[in-house]
Every structure is written in C-alpha cells, then in structure tokens.
Amino acid sequence: MTSGGQRSAFEDGAPRGHTSPGRGRRLPEPGARSASKRTSIFAALVLLLSTGAGFALSITDETAGSQPLVLLLWLTAYAVGGALLIDTVVRLRRRPNVPPWLLLFIILAATSALWSEAPSVTLRRSFALAGTTLVGLAIADRLRPVEVLETVRRVVLLIAVASLLLYLLRDPRALDDVHATLRGVVISKNTLGRVVAVGLISTACLAYLDRRRWRVHLASAVPMAIALALTDSAGGLLLSIIGLSLIASLAIWRSRRDRLALCTVVAAGLGFGILAFPNGISAEDVTQVSGRDTTLTGRTEIWDESLLAARERPLSGYGYGAFWGLGGGGVEAEAAGRIRARLAVPVANAHSGFLDVTLDLGLPGAILAGLVILATLQRGVRDGREGWVDGTLLRAVVVGILLVSTATESGLLQENGFLTVLLVVAAAVRADPTGPRGSSTPPAAIVGAGSRSSRPVLSRSG
C-alpha cells in the first residue's frame, strides 16, 4: 500500500506473470523486459523512418515516397508489425486492440479507389495506410504508455543532435531551401520544428511522471530547444508552448495546495491582457508578433481554393491520396492542377489535416477521422478517472499535438506519417499489455527500483 490509502499498480492481481513471496506484487513475466526492449528498438526505427530523417539529405519532398530504399524499409516494417500481431494472437492468445473508427477509415480509404481520380495512387497509399496501422497496433500492443513516451524522447533527441551537428559543420544541406533556417536531417524546417516540439512535450511528460530523473530529461530538452529555435518554425514553437503549458498546468492542478496559485496566475494573465489590449487583439497583432502575415504564408489562399474543390465532391472526395497525387507533373486531380495554376505555386497539400482528408474522402472521411481522435481522447479521460496518468498523458498529448499541428499542416491519418504512427499507438495502447485491463506500471518500476522517498505518480485508489 502506498501512502494515503492508495494501492500501487504492482499490487493488483494479474492473470499472467508471477508474484514475489509474501507481498502479492506482480512481477514481469520471464523475458518480458527483453521483449519490451526489442519492441522499443523497432518503434524507434519506425519513428525515425516516418520522419524521413537522413533520407531528406539526398531526396526531395516530391520524390520521398518513391525511393526504392524507403519503400523497402516500410515494407519490412509492415511485415514485422504483422508478424508481431500474429504472434500476439497465436502464441500469447491475446486479441490486439483495434480501434473500430480507425478500421472503418481504412476500409473507406481502400474503397475510394472505386471513384478515385487516380485509382493506382489510392490503392497504393491505402495499402501503405493499412501497413502503417499494423505497425502502430503492434507497438501499442507491446509497449506501455510511458515506454512510448521514452522512445519518442530518444528518437527526437537523436534527430535534434544530428541536425545541430550538421549545422555546426556548416553543411549547406542543414538549411531549409526556401527559408534558409535549420531543417537538419529532415525534409523541411516545419517538419523539424514539429518533430522537436513533440520531443519536448514527451520529455516534459516523462519529467512529470518520473521526477527522480528530471535532470536527465532537462539535459535532453536542451538540444531540442536549441534546434527548435534555429528552425524559426512558428508552428513548432506554438505547439511547444501550448503542450508544455498544459502539462505544467496539470502538474500544478493535481497538487491541491497549488491550485489557488494556478488560478491566481491565470486570472492575473487575463487581467493583464484586458488592460494591455482594451480593444481586443486582431489577427494583425498576432501575426506581427510571430513575424508572419495574415495569410499565414499563403495558407489562407490555399484553404480558400481547396474548400471550393471540396464542395465539388462533398460526399465522396477525390479518392484517398489522389487529390494532390504525386505533386506537380504527376498523377493528380484536375482541380488540384487548377489550384496550382491559379496560385502559381507547386502546392503539395492543403496545409490542413482535416481539409486534406475532406478532399480525399469527403465529409464521411473527415467525420471518421474526427471520431478516431474523439475516441482516443475519451479513452484518455477514462484512464484519468481510473488513476493511470501515463495513459491519460499519452493520449491527451498526441491528440493535442495532432489538432494543433494539422491546423496549418498536413499529416492527419497520412500513410507512413510520424503523427499517424503516434495516433494509432495512442488510440490502441493498453494501460498495461501484460496485466489486467486498467492497470499500469509506475515509471519508477521501468527506470529502476524505487526508493522509499520517491512515491510513484501512478497509483490507484484502494
């Protein structure tokens, strides 16, 4: 029993595993730790592949998806993910958790080849989406939420350090081709900004869950923060500020004695805003502070044109992945060619996740995507009510990142995408894949033996 009459997750019964003598604590099954380590390595490799890290140094955005080596690596990842799921069913006799709304979305994406503007593109990309989902389900089936966050932290740290080293070596490939700011080892500055923001938020979650290792997490956050500053990515900076603020607010709110302080700070901030901006804040004020214009670097024009195209096929869309096709000069919808001609810009996507889904699959696709996100958030709320903060944090963080990021960028349920892998994992991950439903292992048990003075954050009312 923990202090306050609460019971640690290790004191719950379990249908599998074994218990230590006299204490009733559930210990990991033999070989479970090594299996978890192997899955973590697989997850890290998949996340690296999904960011395009390294490959971006020699390929362009238009040809990234058609590189033979990239395709071979993804096919290998699909095969490994499928094999892990088969092993779960056959050997472990456990049914993988498959979110129903996500399954319906994949079925709709594959079916859209029947009316697609580019059937071959739709078939190929819907197959890749199904493979990406297999990979995410396999990771979610074998890793705990805190292990997922730790894997994300390590992957992003590696990307940030590699990008900074490339920058310090004055390699011209380290700079974005358009904005001349840091893009590092990925395809663009916005991609790096978004990935680093995810890493910073994951690191903050780990610092909150395992406060004994806050120095390690702070040290790993430093290169991420430097890389984010060098990207000059407004989206990445905004994502980091919102995510870190929410985690800090949660940490303060869970401490009852600090709730008054939090309410005081919020009230003071609102009061300052009212006094400083008595006439309100306009769009020009916000964009001037961020150094952008009111069109968000031309995004609003793309949105207007894309909405007109979406209204032409509101129920069916143009086929999954078929509207923008393979980019300028490739297979694409006729409406996409008109948008590129009107704007005189080689537009690659709508710079909006939900708008891209609507263009591909119409309103039914957008509704299904929304239900996937809503169901993930609902599971996070349920985890919080049961007292398992790791599951709540992972699901809430991924949903928040996805909503903020895809407001001005693409990537919502996109095949082989970094955010897609994270969304599938967050939607399907169990609180503890080796124990009863609703239990979870405290971070202290994962990172090492806990001391008497360090009480695990994750506990359940007894």
Automatic annotation (TrEMBL):
The subcellular location is:
Membrane
Give the Pfam families listed for this entry.
Answer: Wzy_C
Query: What region holds the O-antigen ligase-related domain?
Result: 220-368
Transmembrane helix keyword on record: yes
Offer a single GO CC term for the protein.
membrane
**May I ask which residue range the UniProt record assigns to the signal sequence?**
none
Keyword terms = Membrane, Transmembrane, Transmembrane helix
Against InterPro entries, the record matches this protein to:
O-antigen_ligase-rel_domated (IPR007016), WaaL-like (IPR051533)
Q: Where is this region: Disordered?
A: 1-35, 433-462
The record describes its membrane topology as: Multi-pass membrane protein
Stretches that traverse the bilayer: 41-60, 66-86, 98-116, 152-169, 191-209, 260-281, 361-381
- Biased composition (Polar residues) is annotated at 451-462
Q: What is its main location?
A: membrane
The record's annotation in PANTHER family points to: O-ANTIGEN LIGASE, TEICHURONIC ACID BIOSYNTHESIS PROTEIN TUAE
Q: What is the protein name given in its UniProt record?
A: O-antigen ligase-related domain-containing protein
